[in-house]
Amino acid sequence: MDHYYAVILAGGGGTRLWPMSRSDLPKQLLPLVEDTSMFRVSIERLAPLFPVEHIYVVTGERFADKMRADAPELPAENFIIEPEGRNTGPAAALAMAVIGQRDPDATVALLTADHHITYKERFRAVLNSAFNVAQEGYIVTLGISPSMPSTGFGYIRRGELLSETDGFQVFHSLNFTEKPDPQTARQFLRSGEYSWNSGMFIWRADLAMREFKRQQPVIHDLMAAYQQSVDTPKATAKLAELWSQMPRVQLDTGVMEGAERIAVIPVDIGWSDVGSWDALFDVLDLDVDGNGFRGSSPNRIVVDTKNSLVYSDKLTVTIGVENLVVVDTPDVLMICRKDRAQDVRKVVDLLRETEQDKYL
Amino acid sequence: MDHYYAVILAGGGGTRLWPMSRSDLPKQLLPLVEDTSMFRVSIERLAPLFPVEHIYVVTGERFADKMRADAPELPAENFIIEPEGRNTGPAAALAMAVIGQRDPDATVALLTADHHITYKERFRAVLNSAFNVAQEGYIVTLGISPSMPSTGFGYIRRGELLSETDGFQVFHSLNFTEKPDPQTARQFLRSGEYSWNSGMFIWRADLAMREFKRQQPVIHDLMAAYQQSVDTPKATAKLAELWSQMPRVQLDTGVMEGAERIAVIPVDIGWSDVGSWDALFDVLDLDVDGNGFRGSSPNRIVVDTKNSLVYSDKLTVTIGVENLVVVDTPDVLMICRKDRAQDVRKVVDLLRETEQDKYL
Question: Distance between CA atoms of A278 and B215, rounded to whole angstroms?
């Protein structure tokens, strides 16, 4: 494990969990499922597998202080600060450049900061296997067994079996498909050949740089130019200069879809992208009535309440209600029927259109 | 009208509109129906009928400053401050003693600070008629036509017709009945002979003192002793001294049930005691979907929401919900199904039992 690294890509924003997630307080900084932030949970579930020196974070300056406070055990130099968000492609390339410079034999797992994983031990086991497969020159992805024909995820099609290791089957990956239409999604589910793309990739840093060179030469050249400045006094200035020329590219579509030698390990780790309020019902510990209560105040009075989720930091009283999502923040109160959680996006759009940015 | 006075009994507390109404912020101080407090509304609806010098308020010291601020046009000496709450009997007797001392020919309407009246002009008209009837030595009550067999109100039975005046029929009152059981309430409603006791009484101050003397001699004697001190420098000290011996007596049961020569004027003034959250649906201006929104923030986003009442001072978003009462205060959030509003009382009881007084 001497050359194995984990990188948590934690620079993203998002408003699907509005009004709790905001532009300056994204999902990964919220204690949505456990008692600490999703970012902190992401760090902690890696701890048994990596020395803290091998856990990296890529994020932007505006979230960096909160993340440093959330993960004080990580070395300062393991926080890689993007001068500006340019999507996951440049973020991944930057991490590979920095880690590859420090350890040319590095193999790196690109992981997420805002996804839930229920079975943490199995996650670490499959990650360990993926690192070993990655030594053979594969980009290894963790494939999530789809539970429904979702149109919100990318899909990965399995090809021939490459190997079995530690109880996990490793398949050659035939292709990536970005978010399909409903009919295609149903075909994928029926075929049994597809996994959801979890966005977790494990590959050698040198292979990563080669793939960027082949498919995203602009990103590659900028990061190759940066590599010589890593850990020098000029690093920050140099990165800022180069980053201004950085294109916006998504890792999945810009690199993975066209990559060679991709392997997929289908696995059930109780994964959820926690992409909407109703998704939280699947990952929270609910009480016997199907209710979940979260927030800093332990005070609540619950009378005949079912299948409801309440995020509130003050005394909250519910009487005779069911199937509700209640989110109370200092400046916004939202009460949404559980099966209408997707409509939160429309509310966010409306706020954007009407320039009520203070609520975003 | 030279000797006609209105007294607003505004000293009461109550928690049926918890969590908005609190021990230090009772219902009458809240802008529940209109844009100003119910107390302020009570003052304003009297204004066309009385000079401000003839409008009195009885309350306790802890609410007095807020009420003075709410009704700055009233003379300072028209705020009669009870040293301590001893229920409505002593409050009424105190008002009668003070006003009777200042004007021995006074006729006084005892009114409430926390009830809603939709038809204000008709209210003033019936009040005017009641004053005239009171000159003939009657205690005149305004009787509300019952809309359902409520067990929450007292009832007044009509006897023979005494007179008709300005379009209002005045009846001799046969008896008062305090909150009946459901079966009795249904009989009352069917008989057509009963009105709800609105708690509004109009009578001459000298008659009032005689009724107290006959039925509540302790109260009478204390207030007779106080009367000589009214408007002297010793008034406050004297009242405090006498008040410590004052029994707790309800006006309805302690005086009205045993009073002679009671007249009732049945009238529809769109009266509501606003005794629970669901009662507000009947008195608020609702939108086409049956929703009512109140609070200091004009900001709300309403998606597919029906028959719901929201009291909130911040941006509130409702999506796909119906038949809800939502009350957001700085330290408590309540979400209650409309037809369960009576259960708020149980929550208040629970808070009291568990000594969570800060929420009461």
Answer: 64
Distance from the B292 Cα atom to the nearest Cα atom in chain A, whole angstroms:
15
Domain count of chain A? 2
Same domain, yes or no: B229 and B243: yes
Contact state of A337 with B347 under an 8 Å Cβ cutoff:
no
DSSP summary character for residue A263? E
Chain A, chain B: beta-carbon pairs less than 8 Å apart: 109
Nearest chain A residue to B332, by CA: A315
Encoded tokens for A57: 């974070």
* Residues on chain A touching B294 (C-beta within 8 angstroms): none
- The model's pTM: 0.88
Same domain, B226 and B261: yes
Q: Give me the CATH number covering residue A197.
A: 3.90.550.10
Is B83 in the same domain as B41? Answer: yes
Cα(B163)–Cα(B170) distance, integer angstroms: 5
Q: Assess whether A208 and A87 both reside in one domain.
A: yes
Separation CA B284–CA B118 (nearest Å): 10
Q: Which residue has the tokens 């908005």?
A: B20
The residue in chain A having the minimum alpha-carbon distance to the alpha carbon of residue B330 is A314
Torsion angle of C-alpha atoms A332, A336, A338, A344, degrees rounded to 10: -70
- For B337, which of A316, A319, A344 is closest by C-beta distance? A319
Same structural domain for residues A322 and A254?
no
Which residues from chain A sit within 8 angstroms of residue B350, using beta carbons? 301
**By the 8 A CB rule, do B45 and B117 touch?**
yes
Distance from CA of A358 to the nearest CA of B (A): 11
Model ipTM?
A: 0.88
Chain B residues within an 8 Å CB radius of A300: none
Query: Which residues in chain A (249-308) have CB-CB distances under 8 A to chain B?
Result: 299, 301, 303-304
- pLDDT tens sequence for chain B (360 residues): 799 999 999 988 778 899 999 988 999 999 999 989 999 999 999 999 999 999 999 999 999 999 999 999 999 999 999 999 999 999 999 999 999 999 999 999 999 999 999 999 999 999 999 999 999 999 999 999 998 898 888 999 999 999 998 899 999 998 888 889 999 999 999 999 999 999 999 999 999 999 999 999 999 999 999 999 999 999 999 999 999 999 999 999 999 999 989 999 999 999 999 989 999 999 999 999 999 999 887 789 999 999 999 999 999 999 999 999 999 999 999 999 999 999 999 999 999 999 999 999
Listed residue (B202, B119, B133, B194) closest to B163, CA to CA: B133
CB contact under 8 Å between B319 and A347, yes or no, is yes
Residue contact B318–A335, C-beta within 8 A: yes
Examine the domain organization and report whether B118 and B50 are in the same domain.
yes
Task: Quote the minimal CA–CA distance from A237 to chain B in Å.
Answer: 42
Q: A306-313 contacts: CB < 8 A, separation 24 or more?
A: A307/A281, A307/A338, A308/A338, A309/A277, A309/A280, A309/A281, A309/A284, A309/A338, A311/A20, A312/B333
Say whether both A101 and A176 belong to one domain: yes
Contact list in B for residue A336 (CB cut-off 8 A) is: 317-321
Q: Which of B277, B280, B271, B252 is nearest to B145 (CA)?
A: B271
Domain closes at, from B245, B272, B299: B272
Q: Tell me which residue range forms the domain holding B343.
A: 277-359
